[in-house]
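Researcher: Structure for this, please.
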Amino acid sequence: PILQLNPDALHIARKTETERAAGHVRSPLHGIPFVIKDNIATRDRLGTTAGSLALVGSIVPRDAFVVDKLRKAGAVLLGKATLSEWADMRSTVYSEGYSANGGQSRSSYNLTVNPGGSSSGSAVAVANNVVPFALGTETDGSIINPAERNAVVGIKPTVGLTSRAGVVPESEHQDTVGIIARTVRDAAYALDAIYGVDLRDNYTFAQRGNTPSKGYAAALENRSALRGARFGLPWKSFWTFADAEQQSILLDLVDQIRTAGAFIINNTEITDYQTLVSPDGWNWDYGTTRGRPNESEYTYIKVDFYNNLRSYLSELSNTSIRSVDDVINFNNQHPYAEGAEPGLNPAFASGQDGLLASAATQGIMNETYFQALHFCQSRTRQGIDDALRSSRSVKLDALLVPPDVGQTYQIAAQAGYPMITIPAGVHSKSGMPFGLALMGTAFGESELLRTASAIEDLQRVEGGGRARPQWKGLGVENVPVESQCFGC
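Model: Predicted structure, C-alpha coordinate format:
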Protein backbone atom coordinates (compact mmCIF):
# COMPACT_ATOMS: atom_id res chain seq x y z
CA PRO A 1 0.00 0.00 0.00
CA ILE A 2 3.01 2.32 0.35
CA LEU A 3 4.09 4.15 -2.80
CA GLN A 4 6.95 6.11 -1.19
CA LEU A 5 8.68 5.85 2.17
CA ASN A 6 9.73 9.11 3.79
CA PRO A 7 13.56 9.06 3.99
CA ASP A 8 13.35 11.50 6.91
CA ALA A 9 10.88 9.47 8.97
CA LEU A 10 13.40 8.02 11.42
CA HIS A 11 15.00 11.43 11.98
CA ILE A 12 11.58 12.96 12.69
CA ALA A 13 10.68 10.07 15.00
CA ARG A 14 13.87 10.49 17.01
CA LYS A 15 13.16 14.19 17.38
CA THR A 16 9.67 13.51 18.75
CA GLU A 17 11.12 10.92 21.17
CA THR A 18 13.58 13.51 22.44
CA GLU A 19 10.78 16.00 22.93
CA ARG A 20 8.67 13.47 24.82
CA ALA A 21 11.60 12.55 27.06
CA ALA A 22 11.98 16.24 27.87
CA GLY A 23 8.32 16.38 28.90
CA HIS A 24 7.06 18.14 25.77
CA VAL A 25 4.09 16.30 24.26
CA ARG A 26 2.39 18.29 21.52
CA SER A 27 -0.82 16.25 21.18
CA PRO A 28 -2.17 12.69 21.46
CA LEU A 29 -0.53 12.10 18.06
CA HIS A 30 2.98 12.99 19.26
CA GLY A 31 5.38 10.43 17.75
CA ILE A 32 2.58 8.49 16.03
CA PRO A 33 3.32 7.40 12.43
CA PHE A 34 0.85 8.02 9.63
CA VAL A 35 0.69 7.89 5.83
CA ILE A 36 -1.14 10.09 3.38
CA LYS A 37 -2.70 9.50 0.01
CA ASP A 38 -0.34 10.46 -2.82
CA ASN A 39 -2.53 13.36 -3.89
CA ILE A 40 -1.74 15.33 -0.72
CA ALA A 41 1.25 17.61 -1.12
CA THR A 42 4.39 17.57 1.01
CA ARG A 43 7.30 19.96 0.60
CA ASP A 44 9.99 17.46 1.49
CA ARG A 45 11.84 14.63 -0.23
CA LEU A 46 8.59 12.89 -1.14
CA GLY A 47 6.85 13.47 -4.45
CA THR A 48 3.18 14.22 -4.99
CA THR A 49 1.91 12.57 -8.15
CA ALA A 50 -1.76 11.49 -7.73
CA GLY A 51 -0.41 8.17 -9.02
CA SER A 52 0.40 9.63 -12.44
CA LEU A 53 3.77 9.44 -14.15
CA ALA A 54 3.00 12.89 -15.54
CA LEU A 55 3.69 14.50 -12.14
CA VAL A 56 6.81 12.55 -11.22
CA GLY A 57 9.54 15.08 -10.38
CA SER A 58 7.16 18.00 -9.94
CA ILE A 59 7.74 20.18 -6.90
CA VAL A 60 4.95 21.56 -4.75
CA PRO A 61 5.23 25.05 -3.19
CA ARG A 62 4.39 24.00 0.37
CA ASP A 63 2.95 21.30 2.57
CA ALA A 64 -0.77 20.79 2.33
CA PHE A 65 -2.52 22.55 5.21
CA VAL A 66 -3.56 19.25 6.80
CA VAL A 67 0.00 17.90 6.64
CA ASP A 68 1.40 21.03 8.21
CA LYS A 69 -1.10 20.68 11.06
CA LEU A 70 -0.16 17.04 11.64
CA ARG A 71 3.53 17.88 11.70
CA LYS A 72 2.83 20.57 14.29
CA ALA A 73 0.88 18.01 16.32
CA GLY A 74 4.03 15.87 16.45
CA ALA A 75 2.85 13.08 14.16
CA VAL A 76 5.48 11.32 12.02
CA LEU A 77 4.88 11.11 8.28
CA LEU A 78 5.95 7.61 7.25
CA GLY A 79 5.23 7.99 3.55
CA LYS A 80 2.73 8.27 0.72
CA ALA A 81 0.06 5.65 0.05
CA THR A 82 -1.02 4.27 -3.30
CA LEU A 83 -4.35 5.29 -4.82
CA SER A 84 -6.50 4.98 -7.87
CA GLU A 85 -4.79 7.28 -10.38
CA TRP A 86 -6.11 10.84 -10.40
CA ALA A 87 -8.53 9.67 -7.66
CA ASP A 88 -10.61 7.80 -10.26
CA MET A 89 -11.04 10.76 -12.63
CA ARG A 90 -8.96 9.39 -15.49
CA SER A 91 -11.13 6.45 -16.62
CA THR A 92 -14.70 5.21 -16.35
CA VAL A 93 -13.72 1.52 -16.50
CA TYR A 94 -10.58 0.80 -14.50
CA SER A 95 -8.92 -1.38 -11.87
CA GLU A 96 -9.70 0.22 -8.51
CA GLY A 97 -6.55 0.97 -6.53
CA TYR A 98 -4.26 1.01 -9.58
CA SER A 99 -1.97 3.79 -10.72
CA ALA A 100 0.83 3.88 -13.23
CA ASN A 101 3.20 5.23 -10.59
CA GLY A 102 2.17 2.95 -7.74
CA GLY A 103 0.88 -0.26 -9.31
CA GLN A 104 -2.05 -2.24 -7.94
CA SER A 105 -3.07 -1.84 -4.31
CA ARG A 106 -4.56 -5.02 -2.86
CA SER A 107 -6.66 -5.81 0.18
CA SER A 108 -5.20 -8.37 2.57
CA TYR A 109 -8.70 -9.82 2.94
CA ASN A 110 -8.80 -10.87 -0.71
CA LEU A 111 -5.93 -9.90 -2.96
CA THR A 112 -7.84 -10.58 -6.18
CA VAL A 113 -10.77 -8.20 -5.78
CA ASN A 114 -11.47 -4.48 -5.64
CA PRO A 115 -9.77 -3.13 -2.47
CA GLY A 116 -11.98 -0.04 -2.48
CA GLY A 117 -10.88 3.36 -3.61
CA SER A 118 -9.71 5.78 -4.47
CA SER A 119 -7.89 6.04 -1.09
CA SER A 120 -6.95 2.38 -1.47
CA GLY A 121 -3.44 2.41 -0.04
CA SER A 122 -4.46 4.52 2.94
CA ALA A 123 -7.07 1.94 3.96
CA VAL A 124 -4.86 -1.08 3.31
CA ALA A 125 -1.99 0.44 5.29
CA VAL A 126 -4.24 0.91 8.33
CA ALA A 127 -5.85 -2.53 7.91
CA ASN A 128 -2.39 -4.14 7.80
CA ASN A 129 -1.33 -2.26 10.97
CA VAL A 130 1.42 -0.40 9.14
CA VAL A 131 0.08 2.79 10.75
CA PRO A 132 -2.77 3.52 13.19
CA PHE A 133 -4.25 6.19 10.92
CA ALA A 134 -3.93 7.62 7.44
CA LEU A 135 -5.28 10.54 5.46
CA GLY A 136 -7.42 10.02 2.41
CA THR A 137 -9.55 12.26 0.25
CA GLU A 138 -13.11 11.86 -0.94
CA THR A 139 -15.15 13.37 -3.72
CA ASP A 140 -17.68 10.55 -3.84
CA GLY A 141 -16.93 7.45 -1.76
CA SER A 142 -13.14 7.49 -1.79
CA ILE A 143 -12.77 7.30 2.01
CA ILE A 144 -15.90 5.43 3.06
CA ASN A 145 -15.60 2.75 0.37
CA PRO A 146 -11.98 1.60 0.98
CA ALA A 147 -12.39 1.92 4.76
CA GLU A 148 -15.44 -0.32 4.95
CA ARG A 149 -13.92 -2.80 2.48
CA ASN A 150 -10.85 -3.21 4.70
CA ALA A 151 -12.57 -3.42 8.11
CA VAL A 152 -11.38 -0.08 9.40
CA VAL A 153 -12.96 3.20 10.46
CA GLY A 154 -13.46 5.96 7.90
CA ILE A 155 -14.50 9.55 8.52
CA LYS A 156 -15.60 11.61 5.55
CA PRO A 157 -16.00 15.14 6.98
CA THR A 158 -18.37 17.89 5.93
CA VAL A 159 -16.98 19.76 2.94
CA GLY A 160 -15.28 22.78 4.50
CA LEU A 161 -14.24 21.21 7.81
CA THR A 162 -10.79 20.23 6.48
CA SER A 163 -8.78 22.33 4.06
CA ARG A 164 -8.11 21.08 0.54
CA ALA A 165 -5.22 23.52 -0.01
CA GLY A 166 -2.30 21.49 -1.30
CA VAL A 167 -4.47 18.57 -2.40
CA VAL A 168 -4.67 17.50 -6.04
CA PRO A 169 -8.30 18.46 -6.67
CA GLU A 170 -11.27 16.84 -8.28
CA SER A 171 -14.16 19.12 -7.38
CA GLU A 172 -14.16 22.07 -5.02
CA HIS A 173 -17.84 21.37 -4.30
CA GLN A 174 -17.32 17.84 -2.99
CA ASP A 175 -13.64 17.29 -2.17
CA THR A 176 -12.83 16.73 1.49
CA VAL A 177 -9.80 15.39 3.36
CA GLY A 178 -10.67 12.69 5.87
CA ILE A 179 -9.28 9.97 8.08
CA ILE A 180 -8.99 6.21 7.92
CA ALA A 181 -8.08 4.63 11.26
CA ARG A 182 -8.17 1.45 13.30
CA THR A 183 -10.57 2.87 15.89
CA VAL A 184 -13.02 5.73 16.22
CA ARG A 185 -10.82 7.23 18.94
CA ASP A 186 -7.75 7.25 16.69
CA ALA A 187 -9.82 8.86 13.95
CA ALA A 188 -11.10 11.53 16.32
CA TYR A 189 -7.58 12.42 17.45
CA ALA A 190 -6.54 12.80 13.81
CA LEU A 191 -9.61 14.90 12.99
CA ASP A 192 -8.80 17.22 15.89
CA ALA A 193 -5.35 17.70 14.42
CA ILE A 194 -6.35 18.55 10.86
CA TYR A 195 -9.58 20.55 10.94
CA GLY A 196 -9.57 24.34 11.00
CA VAL A 197 -9.98 27.53 8.99
CA ASP A 198 -7.45 28.00 6.19
CA LEU A 199 -7.18 31.25 4.25
CA ARG A 200 -6.14 29.26 1.18
CA ASP A 201 -9.48 27.42 1.13
CA ASN A 202 -12.47 29.71 1.53
CA TYR A 203 -14.82 26.74 1.97
CA THR A 204 -13.34 26.32 5.46
CA PHE A 205 -14.80 29.70 6.49
CA ALA A 206 -18.18 27.97 6.84
CA GLN A 207 -16.98 26.01 9.86
CA ARG A 208 -16.78 29.14 12.01
CA GLY A 209 -19.28 28.73 14.82
CA ASN A 210 -19.95 25.13 13.82
CA THR A 211 -17.11 23.25 15.53
CA PRO A 212 -16.87 22.05 19.16
CA SER A 213 -14.95 24.23 21.60
CA LYS A 214 -13.21 21.21 23.14
CA GLY A 215 -12.51 19.37 19.92
CA TYR A 216 -13.96 16.19 18.48
CA ALA A 217 -12.31 13.66 20.80
CA ALA A 218 -14.39 15.15 23.61
CA ALA A 219 -17.47 13.69 21.94
CA LEU A 220 -16.30 10.07 22.32
CA GLU A 221 -18.52 7.87 24.47
CA ASN A 222 -19.02 4.30 25.61
CA ARG A 223 -22.01 2.04 24.95
CA SER A 224 -24.07 3.72 27.67
CA ALA A 225 -24.56 6.67 25.30
CA LEU A 226 -26.82 4.45 23.18
CA ARG A 227 -29.56 4.65 25.83
CA GLY A 228 -32.17 6.97 24.40
CA ALA A 229 -30.31 7.51 21.12
CA ARG A 230 -32.48 7.62 17.99
CA PHE A 231 -31.43 6.11 14.68
CA GLY A 232 -33.23 5.92 11.36
CA LEU A 233 -33.08 3.16 8.76
CA PRO A 234 -33.70 4.48 5.22
CA TRP A 235 -34.82 1.05 4.08
CA LYS A 236 -36.27 1.79 0.67
CA SER A 237 -33.57 4.38 -0.07
CA PHE A 238 -30.56 2.13 0.62
CA TRP A 239 -31.02 -1.05 2.66
CA THR A 240 -33.05 -2.82 0.01
CA PHE A 241 -29.98 -2.85 -2.27
CA ALA A 242 -27.79 -4.78 0.21
CA ASP A 243 -27.50 -8.53 -0.31
CA ALA A 244 -29.26 -10.92 2.06
CA GLU A 245 -26.15 -11.99 3.98
CA GLN A 246 -25.11 -8.42 4.59
CA GLN A 247 -28.62 -7.41 5.65
CA SER A 248 -28.75 -10.27 8.14
CA ILE A 249 -25.40 -9.45 9.76
CA LEU A 250 -26.04 -5.70 9.87
CA LEU A 251 -29.53 -6.13 11.29
CA ASP A 252 -28.10 -8.32 14.06
CA LEU A 253 -25.88 -5.36 14.96
CA VAL A 254 -28.86 -3.01 14.76
CA ASP A 255 -30.71 -5.33 17.19
CA GLN A 256 -27.75 -5.11 19.58
CA ILE A 257 -27.93 -1.31 19.34
CA ARG A 258 -31.67 -1.46 20.11
CA THR A 259 -31.08 -3.79 23.07
CA ALA A 260 -28.52 -1.30 24.39
CA GLY A 261 -31.33 1.21 24.72
CA ALA A 262 -31.51 2.99 21.37
CA PHE A 263 -34.68 3.66 19.41
CA ILE A 264 -34.60 2.33 15.83
CA ILE A 265 -37.06 3.90 13.41
CA ASN A 266 -37.50 2.17 10.07
CA ASN A 267 -38.41 3.77 6.72
CA THR A 268 -36.82 7.14 7.47
CA GLU A 269 -36.36 7.73 3.78
CA ILE A 270 -34.36 10.25 1.79
CA THR A 271 -36.90 12.67 0.34
CA ASP A 272 -37.55 11.84 -3.32
CA TYR A 273 -35.18 8.86 -3.17
CA GLN A 274 -36.97 7.42 -6.20
CA THR A 275 -35.38 10.21 -8.27
CA LEU A 276 -32.09 10.74 -6.44
CA VAL A 277 -30.95 7.17 -5.75
CA SER A 278 -29.83 4.98 -8.63
CA PRO A 279 -31.48 1.53 -8.46
CA ASP A 280 -28.52 -0.01 -10.28
CA GLY A 281 -25.62 0.79 -7.94
CA TRP A 282 -23.28 3.76 -7.69
CA ASN A 283 -23.57 6.00 -10.74
CA TRP A 284 -22.34 9.56 -10.63
CA ASP A 285 -23.85 10.24 -14.03
CA TYR A 286 -27.26 8.97 -12.96
CA GLY A 287 -28.94 12.18 -14.04
CA THR A 288 -27.76 11.63 -17.61
CA THR A 289 -28.82 7.98 -17.36
CA ARG A 290 -32.32 9.34 -16.67
CA GLY A 291 -32.02 11.69 -19.65
CA ARG A 292 -31.32 14.75 -17.46
CA PRO A 293 -27.66 15.84 -17.54
CA ASN A 294 -28.77 19.00 -15.71
CA GLU A 295 -29.47 16.74 -12.70
CA SER A 296 -26.20 14.78 -12.87
CA GLU A 297 -23.29 14.97 -10.46
CA TYR A 298 -20.80 14.13 -13.22
CA THR A 299 -21.94 17.18 -15.22
CA TYR A 300 -20.28 19.56 -12.76
CA ILE A 301 -17.54 17.24 -11.47
CA LYS A 302 -15.84 16.99 -14.87
CA VAL A 303 -15.95 20.79 -15.27
CA ASP A 304 -14.63 21.36 -11.76
CA PHE A 305 -11.79 18.93 -12.37
CA TYR A 306 -10.69 20.84 -15.45
CA ASN A 307 -10.68 24.20 -13.65
CA ASN A 308 -9.53 23.13 -10.20
CA LEU A 309 -6.65 21.03 -11.52
CA ARG A 310 -5.42 23.92 -13.64
CA SER A 311 -5.28 26.09 -10.51
CA TYR A 312 -3.38 23.43 -8.58
CA LEU A 313 -0.88 22.79 -11.37
CA SER A 314 -0.16 26.50 -11.79
CA GLU A 315 1.77 26.49 -8.50
CA LEU A 316 4.02 23.54 -9.31
CA SER A 317 7.60 23.88 -10.45
CA ASN A 318 9.88 21.50 -12.35
CA THR A 319 7.04 20.35 -14.61
CA SER A 320 5.44 21.33 -17.88
CA ILE A 321 2.08 19.82 -16.92
CA ARG A 322 -0.38 22.71 -16.51
CA SER A 323 -3.78 21.33 -17.52
CA VAL A 324 -5.92 18.28 -18.12
CA ASP A 325 -4.99 18.63 -21.78
CA ASP A 326 -1.30 18.36 -20.87
CA VAL A 327 -1.98 15.19 -18.88
CA ILE A 328 -3.78 13.69 -21.89
CA ASN A 329 -0.86 14.57 -24.16
CA PHE A 330 1.60 13.04 -21.69
CA ASN A 331 -0.42 9.84 -21.60
CA ASN A 332 -0.49 9.76 -25.39
CA GLN A 333 3.31 9.93 -25.35
CA HIS A 334 3.40 7.02 -22.86
CA PRO A 335 0.46 5.02 -24.20
CA TYR A 336 1.08 1.63 -22.60
CA ALA A 337 2.17 2.70 -19.12
CA GLU A 338 -0.62 5.26 -18.89
CA GLY A 339 -3.28 3.41 -20.88
CA ALA A 340 -3.90 6.20 -23.34
CA GLU A 341 -6.37 4.13 -25.33
CA PRO A 342 -8.62 1.17 -24.51
CA GLY A 343 -6.78 -2.14 -24.59
CA LEU A 344 -3.26 -0.79 -24.05
CA ASN A 345 -3.17 -1.23 -20.27
CA PRO A 346 -5.51 -3.78 -18.65
CA ALA A 347 -5.88 -1.54 -15.58
CA PHE A 348 -7.44 1.19 -17.73
CA ALA A 349 -9.96 -0.72 -19.81
CA SER A 350 -11.63 2.42 -21.12
CA GLY A 351 -8.36 4.25 -21.73
CA GLN A 352 -8.37 7.84 -20.49
CA ASP A 353 -12.00 8.59 -21.32
CA GLY A 354 -12.54 10.35 -17.97
CA LEU A 355 -9.79 12.85 -18.73
CA LEU A 356 -11.12 13.30 -22.26
CA ALA A 357 -14.62 13.99 -20.93
CA SER A 358 -13.25 16.66 -18.63
CA ALA A 359 -11.16 18.22 -21.41
CA ALA A 360 -14.20 18.32 -23.67
CA THR A 361 -15.87 20.75 -21.25
CA GLN A 362 -12.90 23.17 -21.38
CA GLY A 363 -14.03 24.19 -17.91
CA ILE A 364 -17.07 26.09 -19.19
CA MET A 365 -19.60 26.61 -16.40
CA ASN A 366 -22.77 26.93 -18.47
CA GLU A 367 -26.43 26.83 -17.50
CA THR A 368 -26.49 23.04 -17.44
CA TYR A 369 -23.52 23.05 -15.05
CA PHE A 370 -25.23 25.35 -12.56
CA GLN A 371 -28.55 23.55 -12.85
CA ALA A 372 -26.87 20.22 -12.10
CA LEU A 373 -24.92 21.63 -9.17
CA HIS A 374 -28.01 23.22 -7.65
CA PHE A 375 -30.14 20.13 -8.17
CA CYS A 376 -27.67 17.67 -6.64
CA GLN A 377 -26.70 19.85 -3.68
CA SER A 378 -30.13 21.14 -2.73
CA ARG A 379 -32.08 17.93 -3.22
CA THR A 380 -29.64 15.66 -1.37
CA ARG A 381 -29.28 18.10 1.52
CA GLN A 382 -33.04 18.35 1.84
CA GLY A 383 -33.30 14.58 1.50
CA ILE A 384 -30.90 13.82 4.34
CA ASP A 385 -32.19 16.59 6.61
CA ASP A 386 -35.79 15.50 6.08
CA ALA A 387 -34.89 11.90 6.93
CA LEU A 388 -33.17 13.03 10.13
CA ARG A 389 -36.35 14.87 11.14
CA SER A 390 -38.82 12.28 9.94
CA SER A 391 -39.63 10.71 13.31
CA ARG A 392 -42.55 12.70 14.78
CA SER A 393 -40.59 15.93 14.56
CA VAL A 394 -37.87 14.48 16.83
CA LYS A 395 -34.44 14.82 15.26
CA LEU A 396 -32.59 11.55 14.84
CA ASP A 397 -28.99 11.19 16.00
CA ALA A 398 -27.99 9.60 12.69
CA LEU A 399 -29.15 7.49 9.79
CA LEU A 400 -27.75 3.95 9.84
CA VAL A 401 -26.91 2.76 6.32
CA PRO A 402 -25.00 -0.11 4.63
CA PRO A 403 -22.00 1.63 3.01
CA ASP A 404 -21.23 -1.32 0.75
CA VAL A 405 -24.24 0.06 -1.11
CA GLY A 406 -22.47 2.85 -2.99
CA GLN A 407 -25.58 4.99 -3.31
CA THR A 408 -25.27 5.79 0.43
CA TYR A 409 -22.03 7.70 0.23
CA GLN A 410 -23.01 9.14 -3.14
CA ILE A 411 -25.96 11.00 -1.62
CA ALA A 412 -23.78 12.22 1.27
CA ALA A 413 -21.08 13.30 -1.19
CA GLN A 414 -23.43 15.39 -3.31
CA ALA A 415 -24.77 17.03 -0.16
CA GLY A 416 -21.27 17.67 1.20
CA TYR A 417 -22.44 16.06 4.46
CA PRO A 418 -20.41 13.90 6.87
CA MET A 419 -20.41 10.13 7.13
CA ILE A 420 -18.59 7.61 9.34
CA THR A 421 -18.19 3.88 8.71
CA ILE A 422 -17.20 1.29 11.29
CA PRO A 423 -16.38 -2.41 10.72
CA ALA A 424 -19.41 -4.68 10.91
CA GLY A 425 -18.99 -7.99 9.09
CA VAL A 426 -17.38 -10.10 6.37
CA HIS A 427 -18.86 -11.71 3.28
CA SER A 428 -18.55 -15.48 3.60
CA LYS A 429 -17.71 -16.12 -0.05
CA SER A 430 -15.26 -13.33 -0.90
CA GLY A 431 -13.82 -12.76 2.58
CA MET A 432 -14.20 -9.02 2.02
CA PRO A 433 -15.42 -6.90 4.93
CA PHE A 434 -18.28 -4.44 4.98
CA GLY A 435 -19.26 -1.73 7.42
CA LEU A 436 -22.16 -0.02 9.11
CA ALA A 437 -22.21 3.71 8.39
CA LEU A 438 -23.71 6.69 10.15
CA MET A 439 -24.92 9.60 8.06
CA GLY A 440 -25.59 13.08 9.45
CA THR A 441 -26.11 16.71 8.59
CA ALA A 442 -23.60 19.49 7.90
CA PHE A 443 -20.93 19.85 10.59
CA GLY A 444 -22.56 17.05 12.56
CA GLU A 445 -19.28 15.21 13.16
CA SER A 446 -19.50 15.42 16.96
CA GLU A 447 -22.83 13.60 17.03
CA LEU A 448 -21.63 10.98 14.57
CA LEU A 449 -18.45 10.40 16.60
CA ARG A 450 -20.45 10.15 19.80
CA THR A 451 -22.74 7.45 18.48
CA ALA A 452 -20.10 5.65 16.38
CA SER A 453 -17.79 5.35 19.39
CA ALA A 454 -20.69 4.04 21.48
CA ILE A 455 -21.50 1.38 18.87
CA GLU A 456 -17.81 0.46 18.62
CA ASP A 457 -17.69 0.01 22.40
CA LEU A 458 -20.81 -2.14 22.23
CA GLN A 459 -19.10 -4.34 19.66
CA ARG A 460 -16.17 -4.87 22.02
CA VAL A 461 -18.57 -6.34 24.58
CA GLU A 462 -20.94 -8.20 22.26
CA GLY A 463 -18.38 -9.31 19.70
CA GLY A 464 -17.98 -8.22 16.10
CA GLY A 465 -16.18 -5.25 14.66
CA ARG A 466 -12.81 -5.62 13.02
CA ALA A 467 -12.10 -9.07 11.57
CA ARG A 468 -8.70 -10.56 10.84
CA PRO A 469 -7.81 -10.93 7.15
CA GLN A 470 -7.71 -14.37 5.57
CA TRP A 471 -5.34 -13.42 2.71
CA LYS A 472 -7.55 -15.01 0.07
CA GLY A 473 -5.94 -15.12 -3.35
CA LEU A 474 -2.42 -14.79 -1.94
CA GLY A 475 0.09 -15.04 -4.78
CA VAL A 476 -2.40 -14.05 -7.47
CA GLU A 477 -1.46 -10.81 -9.16
CA ASN A 478 -4.39 -10.17 -11.47
CA VAL A 479 -4.83 -6.80 -13.12
CA PRO A 480 -7.51 -5.64 -13.29
CA VAL A 481 -8.79 -6.77 -9.92
CA GLU A 482 -12.28 -8.24 -9.89
CA SER A 483 -14.90 -5.51 -9.53
CA GLN A 484 -16.55 -7.25 -6.58
CA CYS A 485 -18.67 -4.95 -4.48
CA PHE A 486 -21.53 -6.45 -2.48
CA GLY A 487 -23.50 -9.63 -2.79
CA CYS A 488 -20.43 -11.82 -3.34
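Researcher: Any notable elements?
Model: Residues 367-388 form the longest helix (22 residues). The radius of gyration is 21 Å.
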